[in-house]
Specification:
Blueprint: H1 2-12, H2 14-18, E1 30-32, H3 34-44, H4 46-65, E2 72-78, E3 91-100, H5 103-171, H6 177-212, E4 220-222, H7 235-245, H8 247-266, E5 273-281, E6 290-296, H9 303-308, H10 310-373, H11 379-414
Parallel strand pairs: 1-4
Antiparallel strand pairs: 2-3, 3-5, 5-6
Helix pairs in contact: 1-10, 3-5, 4-5, 5-6, 5-8, 5-11, 7-10, 8-10, 10-11
Length: 427
């Protein structure tokens, strides 16, 4: 009796112990912690290469926008006695000139380009945070896939043990043939669940391979284990941090600065440009080098076209961004509070399953199995207890995954590591 009870208790706890060692490693497998997986994703994921190149393009646009115009070189045959009688031209002028925009325009164009660069940089930062959360979620998915496999292995062992007991009772005349058939079905179901678990492991590893920049199909074995996350900080502190640190808001602030500079530049349609030139006549009566300097002053007779055109467009863009910032701040606050609610509920569910549901299910199966071995309960009652235990183990694994993924999403929403905050104060 003691041996049988010890065996059942050990089998019921095997899933939790097996999660610390997901299985045998192949020679080409990668064993990664969660932090190592995130670091690999931030170093190797091609999405970040795309964002870096987009930022480099923005820097190049900044250089082009504030660049000094290239000078123009011209050579002309003037005073020809006939069309295209170049050899009889009385003047042969060579000139080089440059038209330089008013100096203030360089500063404004540089500010516009700098705002574009800052917006691209903040977008890159946001992508890094999002990728870190996605990689953590993929890591959790792989962890729970291994955990499910271990649970199904334990379930198979319990089903096989139950089949042996049922076969022994059948041979002793205390169980019906139908009970043996039911036990065989339970073993087959456990084997089928194992096949599905192996598929889930491969798919989850492939998804993680993509995030961390590895060749798809490389086996990955997580070295961390699923556990209940640490308590959450206060939601008000997280919301305040998010409103200061979220890259979307910083990117919008950069766009606002660029829009203001664009409006100022559009209003300077009347500002003159500077012109500089040097000219020499290589004709028969040509003289020395002649120099000229002046201004190219636009005459804004149709000024209303500018006011209702590019100036109005830029001003409306500023108002659009102002409204966008208000909406984005509200969206960030909602995102933080929604992520907090999800994480808090997921952690509480995991704790409840660990402390209440799972011990009860294990004890119920232990009692049912021992009683069945003594000829007390029916096979259906044992199978029901086993199914409830399997459901409880699976729910706990899923709850741990949900809790860790929700905490990672909350960290993304807060745009700040949660370890920087103290635990939540309970009233």
């Amino acid at each position: 009796m003691k041996i049988t009870t010890t065996l059942i208790v050990a089998a019921c706890n095997a899933a939790a112990l097996a999660a610390q060692a997901p299985g045998p490693l192949r020679g080409d497998s990668l064993m990664l912690t969660r932090d190592a997986a995130i670091a690999s994703a931030l170093a190797n994921n091609p999405q970040l290469d795309i964002a870096r190149e987009q930022t480099a393009q923005a820097r190049a646009r900044q250089v082009s926008g504030a660049a000094i115009p290239d000078p123009a070189l011209t050579y002309s045959y003037d005073n020809q006695p006939g069309f295209l009688r170049l050899g009889s031209a009385e003047q042969r002028n060579a000139a080089v000139g440059i038209q330089i925009p008013f100096p203030n325009k360089f500063s404004l164009r540089n500010r516009i380009g700098a705002a574009d660069v800052h917006a691209a940089e903040f977008s890159y930062t946001g992508l890094r945070q999002q990728l870190a959360a996605q990689t953590s979620g993929a890591y959790d998915t792989l962890l729970v896939a291994y955990r499910h496999r271990d649970i199904f292995r334990t379930s198979r062992d319990l089903a096989q043990d139950f089949l042996k007991k049922t076969q022994a009772r059948f041979e002793g005349g205390t169980a019906a043939k139908l009970d043996v058939t039911r036990a065989q079905v339970a073993v087959a179901q456990a084997e089928n669940n194992l096949i599905g678990a192996e598929r889930d492991i491969r798919n989850a590893a492939n998804a993680l391979d993509r995030y961390i920049g590895q060749r798809i199909g490389t086996p990955v074995v997580p070295s961390d284990s699923l556990s209940v996350p640490l308590p959450l900080p206060d939601v008000n502190e997280l919301e305040a941090a998010a409103l200061d640190m979220r890259p979307e808001l910083s990117g919008l602030a950069a766009q606002q600065a660029g829009a203001r500079a664009t409006t100022t530049l559009a209003k300077q349609y009347w500002v003159p440009d500077l012109t500089l030139a040097a000219q020499k006549d290589y004709g028969p009566d040509g003289g020395g080098m002649l120099y000229s300097a002046g201004i190219a002053l636009p005459v804004p007779i149709f000024f209303w076209q500018h006011n209702k055109g590019e100036i109005a467009e830029s001003q409306h863009r500023e108002r659009e961004l102002t409204a966008t910032v208000r909406d984005a701040r509200a969206q960030v606050s909602q995102d933080v509070r929604a992520a907090y609610a999800n994480a808090d509920a997921a952690i509480r569910q995991a704790i409840y399953i660990r402390d209440a549901l799972l011990p009860s299910a294990r004890e119920a199966y232990r009692v049912a199995s021992v009683s069945y071995g003594l000829g007390g309960l029916s096979s259906l009652e044992v199978l029901d207890a086993r199914r409830e235990l399997l459901d409880a183990e699976t729910q706990y694994a899923d709850a741990l995954t949900a809790a860790n993924s929700a905490r990672a999403d909350l960290e993304r929403a807060a745009a700040t590591p949660l370890t920087r905050f103290g635990p939540r104060r309970t009233p």
